[in-house]
Structures are given as structure tokens and as C-alpha cells.
Amino acid sequence: MSNPKILITGGAGFIGSHVVRRFVRNYPNYSIYNLDKLTYAGNLMNLKDIEDEPNYTFIKADIVDDAHILELFQEHQFDGVVHLAAESHVDRSISNPTEFIRTNVLGTVNLLNAAKAIWAGSMEGKRFYHISTDEVYGSLGDTGFFTEETKYDPRSPYSASKASSDHLVRAYFHTFDLPVVLSNCSNNYGSFHFPEKLIPLAIHNIKTNKPIPVYGKGDNIRDWLFVEDHAAAIDLIFHKGRLGETYNIGGENEWKNIDLIHKLCEVMDDRLGRAAGTSAQLITFVKDRAGHDHRYAIDCSKLKAEFGWKPSVQFEEGLAKTVDWYLSNQVWLDGVTSGDYQKYYELQYEKR
Ligand code: NAD
Ligand code: TYD
User: Fold this and answer.
1) Catalytic residue chosen out of the listed positions 30, 33, 56, 158
2) 212, 250, 289, 348 - which has most CB atoms within 10 Å?
3) Separation in Å, CA 105 to CA 164, 197, 300, 321
4) Cβ contact 234:183 at 8 Å
């Protein structure tokens, strides 16, 4: 196909905006459609640098609205879908699980149904790529890794909703021959990350001299991947991934939360010209997250072996780049931390 029309859902969010930017720039012959509801997490400021490109179109739509989604597929006749739109924050899923079921489960089924309807004549060259998380595999002890064969064991409403959507995508492959591919990635970090997640929240709080809330004892472990490395993996899997297959994506970069926060405090002290140890004084241990998964760690050897992908950005370098981005994008940060963010912050953290 020489001029494919590619739908990217959730392209105004954190990872989605990096994927949209990469596809718009790398594939000038593709028409890239970014479909996003612009929830609190969606922000067109994330795409300012590419919004006027001739191969880019923004569509404001809600994936839960099945009739509208079908109409859009009929109107534009998309050849491929990269599906990232989701409710993505575990703490919000604990406060409001139903919204996660609506968006992550129903929204995904609506996209699957629309793709199935318009591709019914011929599935040749078509592709539905579903982006998921390592959290569907559950929680690890201090050893071992999640592989593509690890049994699903989601433990938060967020991960349960993502697991449901993964199962549905695979069901459409087996039942309806829909040409699907999936990936499950570890924690991402980088620019345009909404400051409800650990790293950008801590950067914002350190900068404004507010407590850094560390859940429990800070001994939970996450595997961190620089977001542009995730976007590179998504590009490869979209183009080369084998149909019906799942690929794990990880940073091979495990950090205990408390160690990561200390590392971040060092970078912030350096960048803000503060004496060593100043920012670390803001660390505050708070009530743990309910059902807090202990450890996530990904075995991404399948992706490495099949496509030669590997994480390209070392954590120290990625963290410094991320801090520098937040410090030089104050207007963006002010925009996303005003209004509703303050209410969210009070609700989540005041009683902790
Ligand atoms: P995000 O919360 O930053 O962005 C989600 C985007 O989806 C936003 O732009 C939002 O407006 C949009 N959206 C939400 N509900 C919608 C709806 N009903 N209709 C249309 N658009 C809607 O999320 P993210 O961190 O960029 O994650 C993107 C995807 O990657 C998600 O599917 C997530 O599960 C997955 N993922 C995230 C991580 C991570 O570390 N952030 C890791 C692995 C996988
Ligand atoms: P988060 O960024 O929410 O990602 P996820 O829950 O999807 O892994 O959290 C990363 C880790 O940091 C997780 O173990 C929870 C912890 N955490 C805190 O200690 N304090 C916070 O304020 C937040 C948001 C997270």
C-alpha cells in the first residue's frame, strides 16, 4: 500500500503524542489521523510542532461512542489502527473503576467492530495494533520476568480493564481473522508525561518545594523505558510484527521507587543549583496504594531477537533529558497543573 491511512487513537496523550510525531515525520506518504477525546490526559499542546504537517489530521472523538466510531471508519477507510487511547492511571482506577471499563474495554470493542466492518471485504494489508501494559501479568516477587507466555493475573481495575481488552483483541483474531498484533510494555518516562505519574509528579513537586509522596516504604520495583524507545518499538511492531503475536517491550532497567526518587533528587539539585541533599529532604512516605503490585520486570528477548530492537537511551541520560524538558517547558506544566489537577491532587494526597 503506497499511501496508507493510519488511525492512531489517544495520540494527544503521553505515549501517543510521541508515536504520532514519529509516524508523521518518518512516513510523509502516510496519512496520520489522531483520534482523541481530549480527556484531562489529552493535550494538543503535545503536538504543536507537527500540527500543520500536510499528512496529519486531528479528530476529536470518544471511542466509547460506537456509532460515531463506525461512521469515522466508513468515512476515512483506515488501513491500519494503532490503538493507545485508554484511561491509564492506576490510582484513578481505584477511585473510579467504571470509567476504565467503559474506555478500555468498551472503547476497544468499538474499534475492533468498526475495523471488522470496514475490512470485511478484504483483510489484505490491514492491521489492528493494540498497545498494552506489562501490568496485565500481575506482580512479581524479587526474581523472575514477565514473558509473552506469563499467565495474566491483573490486580488493579486498570490492569484488569487492559487485560480484558487484550483478550478481546486476541478473540477477534481467532474468531473473525482480524489482523491484529499486540505489545505489552513496562513503565515509560520522558517528555509530555502527565504529572499524576511518579516521575513527572516528583519533578513538579521538587521544583515547587512540595513533599514528594512515596507510597509505603518505596520498595516497589518498576522497569523504566524512555518513551521514544517505546515509540521506536511500536513503529517496528506495527510494520513487521507477526499477526496474532504479542511482543513484550521493556527497559531492562529496574529501579526501586525510593532509589529512583533519590537519583531524581540528585539531578534536580544539580539543575536547580541547590546544595546536594536539598531536594531529598522533600521525600515523604505516605499511605500505600491499595493492592500495590510489588515488582514488574519484562523479558523482551523476543522483540530483540526478531527485530534487533533494544532500549537505546540509558536511564541516567533519559532522566536528565526528562528533567531538562520539564524545566524548560514551564508553560506546558502550568497548563496541565492548573484547575482540575489541583482538585485531583487534594483528593489523592491530602488524606494519605
Ligand atoms: P495517557 O493517559 O497519557 O493518554 C491517554 C490518551 O487517551 C489521552 O490523550 C486521552 O485524551 C485519550 N483518551 C482517553 N479516553 C478516551 C476515549 N474514551 N476516547 C478517545 N480518546 C481517549 O496514557 P499513556 O501513558 O500515553 O498510555 C497510552 C497507552 O499505552 C495506554 O493504552 C496504556 O495502557 C499503554 N501503556 C502505558 C504505559 C505507561 O507507562 N504510561 C506503559 C505501557 C502501556
Ligand atoms: P505510576 O507512575 O503511577 O505507574 P504504575 O503504577 O503504573 O507503575 O507509579 C510508579 C510507582 O511509583 C508505583 O510503584 C507507585 C509509586 N508512586 C508513588 O510512590 N507515589 C506517587 O505519588 C505515585 C503517583 C506513584
Assistant:
1) 158
2) 250
3) 6, 22, 26, 34
4) yes
The kind and range of the H/E element at 260 are helix 257-272
Tell me the domain boundaries of the chain.
Answer: 5-191+224-252+297-313+342-350
The b-or-e profile of 96-118 (16+ CB within 10 A means b, else e) is ebebbbbbbbbbbbbbbbbbbeb
Per-residue pLDDT of 328-340, as tens digits, reads 999 999 999 988 9
User: How far does residue 202's CA lie from ligand 2's centre (Å)?
Assistant: 10
Q: What CATH architecture applies to the domain 5-191+224-252+297-313+342-350?
A: 3-Layer(aba) Sandwich (3.40)
C-alpha cell at 209: 518545594
Look at residue 351 in the predicted model and tell me its pLDDT. Answer: 81
For 290, which DSSP code? T
Cell of 243: 499477526
Fill in the amino acid letter for 350.
Answer: E
- Inform me whether the pLDDT recorded for 8 exceeds 70: yes
Calculate how far, in angstroms, residue 36's C-alpha sits from the geometric centre of ligand 1: 10
C-beta of residue 349 within 8 angstroms of C-beta of residue 202: no
Query: Is residue 215 over pLDDT 90?
Result: yes
Note whether 182 and 245 are within 8 A (CB): yes
**53 backbone dihedrals φ, ψ, rounded to 5°:** -65, 140
The pLDDT of residue 2 is above 80: no
Q: What is the pLDDT of residues 106-128, one digit of tens each?
A: 999 999 999 999 999 999 999 99
**Catalytic site includes residue 134:** yes
CA atoms within 13 A on the CB side of 344: 19
pLDDT in tens, 306-329: 999 999 999 999 999 999 999 999
Query: Per-residue pLDDT for 1 more than 70?
Result: no
Q: How many residues appear in the chain?
A: 352
**Ligand 2 atom with the shortest distance to the CA of 296:** 8
DSSP 317-345: HHHHHHHHHHHT-HHHHHHHSSTHHHHHH
